[in-house]
Write a structure and sequence with these properties.
Layout (H helix, E strand, L loop, with lengths): L1 E3 L2 E3 L38 H8 L3 H10 L6 E2 L5 E2 L2 H16 L3 H13 L4 H47 L1
Antiparallel strand pairs: 1-2, 3-4
Helix pairs in contact: 4-5
Length: 169
């Protein structure tokens, strides 16, 4: 069982790695990272270059996320350098999933704003996610149809290549 945005979700049976259940703290947070954190809680202070290495995002993208309000407040060291936490890493994983859904950046920013407001925005956040889910289901159906066409063409060409072999024997 994992907790995403305060909601418990079952892990699919095909998952090979058990995910630890996060304790419910009443705080709305994204805590479903697919990988273990590089450092335990309390020692989770990452530089931007470490976050780049962990997430695959660029430093430019991380700064942009912060500038447009997609990243919650990122702590700073005494010298002003960004210091990211495990919670920030979890959020970036979630944002990556939202990006894969095709959710517009404006909707992601809106979701982040609603998240910062608190529990009173659960319904609006749910509506945003449900709308995105409907879009994903539609895209999956379109991709299944496209895959069927590709499979048909591949079978056609494979059959066309075998046909001359039958006549030559």
């Amino acid at each position: 069982m994992t907790v995403i945005d305060g909601t418990s979700r079952s892990i699919p049976a095909t998952s090979t790695q058990p995910q630890p259940q996060q304790p419910s703290s009443g705080v709305d947070a994204c805590t479903a990272a697919p990988k273990a954190h590089p450092r335990p809680a309390g020692k989770d202070s990452y530089t931007i270059s470490e976050v780049v290495a962990f997430t695959g995002l660029t430093a430019h993208t991380l700064r942009w996320y912060e500038r447009i309000g997609l990243m919650p407040h990122v702590d700073r060291s005494h010298t002003g350098q960004r210091r990211f936490s495990n919670r920030d890493l979890d959020w970036l994983v979630f944002v990556g999933k939202l990006r894969l859904t095709g959710m517009p950046v404006a909707d992601m920013v809106r979701y982040a704003e609603l998240l910062r407001v608190g529990e009173s925005t659960f319904e609006e956040r749910q509506e945003l996610l449900e709308s995105t889910r409907r879009d994903v289901i539609t895209r999956i159906a379109e991709l299944h149809d496209t895959l069927a066409v590709l499979d048909h063409k591949i079978e056609y060409y494979a059959g066309a290549r075998r046909a001359p072999e039958r006549h030559s024997a």
